[in-house]
Amino acid sequence: MVGTIAPAGRRARRERDWLAVNPSIVFALSAAVTAGIVGFLLGSLGSGLGLTINRWTLALVALVALAAAFVESREVRPRLSLFRAQVPPTWATYLGTRRAAVAYGSVLGVGFATRIPHSSIYVVALSALFIGRFGAFFVWSLYGVGRAIPVVTATYSKQELEPDLWNQKTSALTSQVRKACSLMLASTAVMLTAVLVGELLSSGSADPSGL
């Protein structure tokens, strides 16, 4: 997507057409809105099943976060059955730049419909089941924005890099990003565990019925 949307965004910047929205911004908005819808649906599913935040769910999310942190620390790319490994670049040809930006952003926002770069998505998806519709909408919207940041950065960067060179530059940071992601996931697991232990100590009971 960096090699397709970002060059179009840079061309739009050079043309200085202030009346037209930059394709990269369209892409990011599409990713955020679609991700929000996915989050809302996950939150609705959780609410429909009666899932709430309690001791069991805190322990489950902490465990999954810890497992995801281990995966990231080992630099093993998570794999699931995906609809498509990558979106086809031909969309930009027969859909036009801005409609293709909407399509690319929508696929990215779904989260599981394209390549999954980090295992943190599983923690976010699991958490969305327990935090309600609007909480999940907000969290997943942020996820969509996060996934779109590389394209927006490539569009507005002062460095005039070709798409292949920009991809190489991004790939060079992969190890550091994985380490940061692993640290954040481990910190999340520790924080949730601390909350759980604190609740158990304060209640003085092993009753797992909820907070």
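The above is record 1. Record 2 follows with the same two-line structure.
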Amino acid sequence: MGIGFHTKEKPQTLDEYNEDLERGDAEIDKGNFTTAEDLKSEVQQW
């Protein structure tokens, strides 16, 4: 099929990990997240 993708991953550094956490916290602070209730409501529509 000729699918070109890489499967090898390298571990995150501590700095990369902390940056990911900060970006996630910023998204939550903005209200950009889905609650369990949101998911339950969405599933009912299927």
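The longest helix spans residues 14-30.
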